[in-house]
Amino acid sequence: MLFKRKEIYLDNAASTKVDERVLKKMMPYFSEKYGNASSVHIIGQEAKRAMEESRDIIAKSIGAKSDEIVFTSGGTESNNFALKGLFFANPDKKHIITTRIEHDCVLNTCKWLEKLGAKITYLDVDSEGFVNPEDVKKEITKDTLVVSVIHGNNEIGTIQDLEAIGKICREKGVYFHTDACQSYTKTSLNVKKQNLDLVTLNSHKIYGPKGVGALYIREGIKISPLMHGGGHERGFRSGTENVSGIVGFAEAVKISSSRETARMSDLRDMLIEGILKISNTRINGSRTKRLANNVNVSFNNIEGEAIGSYLEAYGICSSTGSACASHSLQKSHVLKAIRLTDSQINSSIRLSLSKFTTKEEIETVLNVLSKVVEKLRKISPFKN
Fold it and tell me: pTM of this prediction?
C-alpha cells in the first residue's frame, strides 16, 4: 500500500483552495442553470439574474455601484484593461506613474505602452516596500493620466496607504488605479474613502475559482475595451460570461470574514516570530502593515530554491517569489527594489497562509524549517 504524505500548503498567495461552500454554490450553473446570460429565454435569464446578484455582492464589498463592476478573466486581464483602456481612450495624456514593486502584468503592460509613446515613471520604495505619497505628488504633471499602485504586494505583503495617495490623485485630477488582488477581503478597501477610480480584483486568491476577476471602473471614466464582440458587460468586455465562476467569486466574497483574517494574522505572527529565532534571518516587508497571510524571509548565504526543495520533500509547499514569474531565473524585482543584496534575494522564500492553515501546521513548518536551514548552512560554501 502506498503511503500518502500529509501536505502543508503555504503558497496561498499563488492560489487558494476553493471553499466547499463556493463549490456547492457553483455546481448548479454547470448542469442545471447552464444557460447563456445573454439569452432571452428562462434558462438564460436565470443565469443573468445570478450574475447580476453576484455583481451586486462584489460592488457592495468595496462601496461601489453594481454597474461599476466589469467581470474579466482575472487580475492580469483587469490590470491590462485598466492601463491600456485608459491610454487608448485618452490620447491627449501620455504619462503613467507606477512603482518598481508592481506585479509583472502591470510592469509588462507599462513596458508595452512605452513602445506606443507612453512615458512611464517608476517610483522607488523604501526598505519595507512603501511608496512615499509625496513622491507621487512630485511626479504628477499636466500630462499625467493615471497613477497605478499595488495595494498589498504579492511578494513581501506590504500594504500601501491608498487613502493618502488617492487624496493626492483626486486633488491633482488624475486617475488612481490599484491592483488589489492580494489584499481584497483581507484589509480595508473602499473606493470612495480611498478615492479609487479603478480597482483590480480576482477570485482565486480568496478561495474562489480560477479564471474570473473584475475591474471596478468609476462611473463616467472614459476607457476603451480590449475585447470586442457582442458587447457583453455593457460594451466594456465582450465574450460569453463565466457565470459559474462569477457566482463562485461572489460567494467567496460573501463568506469572507474579519475573524478568519484575524486568525491568519495570529498564525502569520507566530510563523514570523519562530523564523526569527533562526540565526541570521530577516523578514522582508513591513512587520505591522502587511497582508494577514504573507511571510517573506531571507536566510542569507543559502539558496531559497534549495530550501524550497527540502520543504517540498517534507510535503510543505512554499514559493521563492511570485508564481507568475516562477519559471524565470531573474532575481525578484520586488526584493531588488527594497535594496536587498544578491545573497539576501537568493536566500528568500515566501510562505503564505490561508484560512485553512492550522496552528499545528505552523509548528510543523517551524520545526522542519530550522532543521533544513541548519543542514544547508553546514554544507554552504559561504560564511553565515
Answer: 0.95
Active-site hit among 110, 169, 317, 324:
324
Catalytic residue check, 324 = yes
Report the CATH number that the domain containing residue 60 is assigned in CATH.
Answer: 3.40.640.10
The three cell numbers of residue 363 are: 509548528
CB-CB contact of 349 with 297 (8 Å): yes
Q: How many domains would you assign to the chain?
A: 2
Check: CB of residue 104 under 8 Å from CB of residue 324: yes
Model confidence pLDDT, tens digit, residues 284-339? 999 999 999 999 999 988 999 999 999 999 999 999 854 444 455 578 999 999 99
For residue 254, give the C-alpha cell: 460573501
One DSSP character per residue, 242-262 reads -HHHHHHHHHHHHH--HHHHH
pLDDT digits (tens, 9 = 90+) for 147-163: 999 999 999 999 999 99
Q: Are residues 249 and 309 in the same domain?
A: no
| 3 in a structural domain | no
Range of the structural domain that residue 154 is part of: 20-255
